[in-house]
């Protein structure tokens, strides 16, 4: 009692049709879920390859109308940075805006620090050219490189934290959508 060729062909056709319908349903469900899910866009951390003659300022980031920009002030002493921030307390509730504001403030601190380092380097070169010993401590090339490496490592840590924050936000959204069903 074997199956004929046409019966086998009919069975394979029905199985293929069921798989196509199942694929279509899953595809549409995923498209609808992705349309309802908030898309996260990460801006790459741009590190200059060579220090330009004049330090470039970071691009102003878009801040939502609800959250005004964070006001900041910096004080650099030796290897210590002191920051004073002024921002609305409501910003602490918005992880994305807080992370964006923090990255913006730290970017401004980096620009300011680079300007200070460039000023020190220019002073030391001027003092060398004039043959006068400067009262301020000179930064060697190794110290400058180490400082720039610390800044680069800091930028990498901020990038990783932003990625973790985005993953945490995506996980929280998925978790809330599963509990709603």
Provide key terms for this protein:
single chain; mainly alpha; two-stranded antiparallel sheet; 3 helices; 2 strands; 60% helix
Largest sheet report: 2 strands, antiparallel
Judged by helices, strands and strand pairing, the structural class is mainly alpha
What overall form do the CA principal axes indicate?
A: elongated
Summed over residues and divided by their number, the pLDDT gives a mean of 76
Q: H/E order of the elements?
A: HEEHH
The CA-CA distance between the termini, in Å, is 49 Å
Percent helix, as a range, is: 55-70%
Tally the helices: 3
Instruction: Order the strands across the largest sheet as they lie in space.
Output: 1-2
Tell me the radius of gyration. 28 Å
Strands, count: 2
- Low-confidence parts, pLDDT < 50 over ≥5 residues? 60-65
Kindly report the oligomeric state of this protein.
single chain
**How much β-strand is present in the residues?**
5-15%
What does this entry look like structurally?
By secondary structure, this protein is mostly helical. The protein is built from three helices and two strands; from the N terminus they run H-E-E-H-H. It has a two-stranded antiparallel ribbon with strand order 1-2. Strand 1 and strand 2 form a beta hairpin. The radius of gyration is 28 Å and the shape is elongated. About 3% of the residues have low confidence.
